[in-house]
Amino acid sequence: MKTSRQLSDPLKLGTRGSRLALTQAQLVADALGTAEVVAVKSSDGAPGDKERFVRGVERAVLAGEVDLGVHSAKDLPGERPEELRLVGVPVREDPRDAYVGEASSLDELPEGARLGTASLRRRSQLLALRPDLDVAELHGNVDTRLSKLAEGEYDGLVLAAAGLQRLGRADEIAFRFDMEKLTPAAGQGSLALEGRRQDSTVAAEAARISDHDALIELTAERAAVGALEATCHTPVGICARIGPGELTVFGYAGLPDGSEWVRDQVVGDPEQPAALGETLVERMLAAGARELLDKAEALT
């Protein structure tokens, strides 16, 4: 395994091959000043298994084929290979979910409107707000999803505002959901830079473009998800937002059909993000979140 490198050559940034992933990695390359983006093949896995993209990039980092892995932070599992570490979190894009379609609020949608999303988290929260909606599965990259909306297969889509922003399609956003109504996924809007544990030279380069506030928010979110023991089969939203002198962490856990849910938020010291995330989870567990998530896991 390669452990370190000299910076005589441009850094190689590994990422998955989708247009959004390549665009995100190029933003990191531009921030670094001299870096090359390398598209990495995913590892084996079932369709819809986002971790297979992470594993493919991690394999390339471990093999020394690239110096840094660039991930969408919401795809990065809590358990990481021992030889790798998170070395940077660049400035965060808007973490909120966005609605694309003909409406200025969820209340405007007619009864039974068909909305497309691939996310259990979004499905659960949308149905908790509007149980009459027809929330249908929609997979594919952002461009594919938007084309299906244009073809009339759906009345509207719910997507990450950050992805639309980075792809230059923010003008298609009809409205963005309040954090208290549709709590985003942990890490949504954030990028995570992963490097070899022993490679201090590359880690220093990643740290140079890392953002203090984004790192605090991601730390709180990942601590909360870890304490909840959430998986990709459980409808969970966790989002932290830092403000002047305080950090607010929002949380949601529910059933896929939105019939039962727990929602809470805590405000505290931004210098203790992990502890604050864990405090939120303690409150949610006391309100029955564990039982809900176990039930949700059994249903999927």
Summary?
With 300 residues, the protein is of the alpha/beta class. Helix content is 34%, strand content 24%.
Low-confidence stretches: none
Number of helices: 9
Kindly state the percentage of residues in helix: 25-40%
Class computed from helices, strands and strand pairing: alpha/beta
- Give me the count of strands: 13
Mean pLDDT: 92
Rg computed from alpha carbons, rounded to a whole number of angstroms: 19 Å
The biggest beta sheet is recorded as:
5 strands, mixed
Strand order of the largest sheet: 2-1-3-10-4
Order of helices and strands: EHEHEEEEHEHEHEEHHEEEHH
Strand % is 15-25%
Termini separation comes to: 38 Å
The backbone outline, from C-alpha atoms, is: globular
Secondary structure layout:
Layout: E1 11-15, H1 19-32, E2 35-39, H2 51-62, E3 68-72, E4 84-88, E5 97-101, E6 114-117, H3 120-129, E7 134-137, H4 142-150, E8 156-160, H5 161-166, E9 175-176, E10 191-196, H6 200-208, H7 212-228, E11 236-243, E12 246-254, E13 261-268, H8 273-286, H9 289-299
Parallel strand pairs: 1-2, 1-3, 6-7, 6-8
Antiparallel strand pairs: 3-10, 4-10, 5-8, 5-9, 11-12, 12-13
Helix pairs in contact: 7-8
